[in-house]
């Protein structure tokens, strides 16, 4: 039955931040040849697709999310021949390759913007969003940049401001101009013709802005910390017209076989679901970031997660395929947010929920945020707002992959200065060390992906949350989140996750009398269990096979 599902429904996506995965040429920055060298490793993780953050030519003001040429390759990462090789090597291993598409803005060095800013009557002028100064000479309205300060920068030469919601070197394209979307669709076709399997589309929910440029109202719930949150972003985000743009992008994807469009969208369920499209004609997967938004141990609670999963499942449109994400290059690492013991539970959750999981590189070995000394900070929001660096700086989750305990963790040759510092504990936490430890996080990750791949109930089966009473009590144990995954004519699985640091004795006999442990987070426990008297240890997760 699993044959009727598409690769991206059954599969696991693995995100690579290319600057930090593997440096093959000794410049301290990861590259495409480095990724190629590590493909056997990726295959050993049983992941089905890799998504690579931007590899295009870029002045790197936002580390590649400022694209100067959408159909080229930055020499730091390699050449187009390297991409072709990566693609064929990925495909040879039965995996898929997803690229990052950044349509909302370009680099200020992109030839389109160079033309646009050259004069007010240049034909590309209105490909970007230019406005006259306010009567006092200041910015045209109160819109803010995510990265601090106003979203407008004044251009001396032509006497107008241009819009950028990120750094000022990321001018925003004007999708109200009839030539801009067709140009972006051609770029999509360029990569799809090459055989790329899909795109993760950067800030897709921001692509359209209010055409009257109204001031945004104050946010009554602002906590006084991050200045960008002062306003309610009703005129710069999630405009109804954006759906028409996305439908046109999807039509291009549909000119090809089984390609995938994932949209980066930070919105609550009700709004998020609209990005599947009324007729499933928008994103295949609007990224679901609810787990990422649980930012610390205080919010990482079994009942919070249970309610979140149940609410998401209930909000999904009938044919909308779910997805879950634990971490990415913009948010603190999950092992730091929830702690190392719960990071195992988090991975078991990710890989047993219904829907496509996305893993951020290093999560499979429990990589944590790396403290960045002030003089080494590189990420623009942290550089612009040093007092908030600890909160919003993204360098800590972008540090080099920890391959072994040798010099530079096997990421770069000895003696090379890596672009961000290595984790101080890399000699203890690295791939090579975990390969040989049967109880390691790495081997847990593999056991989870292996089971998910071989069991239809886990990859495509239904999800039902179940109550998990303590033995002798009727009330569910607060620390426990338990759920069933099942599919007709195949084994069912009961997943029991202890989010707390106390042990519990549970009575789950209402589900079945007994079960067999398929995977335990400690990678030791195994064998049959009596579900009327199930001990669940602190920080323990169990996948139980019901036959
Ligand atoms: C997305 C990216 C982030 C980038 C921003 C601007 O949110 O994930 O890394 O800074 O867009 O392109």
What features would you describe in this structure?
Helix 4 (80-92) links the parallel strand 2 (49-52) and strand 3 (96-101). This protein has 16 helices and 19 strands. The chain has helices spanning 7-10, 32-37, 39-44, 80-92, 111-116, 180-194, 242-253, 269-272, 302-315, 334-338, 340-350, 380-384, 389-392, 431-435, 441-454, 456-460, and strands at 13-16, 49-52, 96-101, 130-131, 152-155, 160-163, 198-201, 260-263, 285-286, 323-325, 356-360, 462-466, 480-486, 492-498, 504-506, 514-520, 527-530, 534-536, 541-546. The strands form 4 sheets. It has an 8-stranded parallel beta sheet. Strands 12-13-14-19-16-17 form a 6-stranded antiparallel beta sheet. The model has no long low-confidence stretch (mean pLDDT 97). The protein is α/β, with parallel strands linked by helices. Residues 62, 65, 102, 166, 202-203, 264, 329-330 line the site of alpha-D-glucopyranose.
Concise synopsis of the structure shown:
The chain has 547 residues and is of the alpha/beta class.
Strand content: 15-25%
Shape: globular
> How many beta strands in the DSSP annotation?
19
The value of Rg in angstroms is 24 Å
The secondary-structure class comes to: alpha/beta
Helix residue percentage: 10-25%
Mean pLDDT: 97
The number of distinct helices, counting runs of at least 4 residues, comes to: 16
Q: Strand count, sense and closure of the main sheet? A: 8 strands, parallel
Bound molecules: alpha-D-glucopyranose
Instruction: Report low-confidence residues grouped into runs of 5 or more.
Output: none
- Give the CA-CA distance, first to last residue: 19 Å
Largest sheet strand order: 9-8-7-3-2-1-11-10
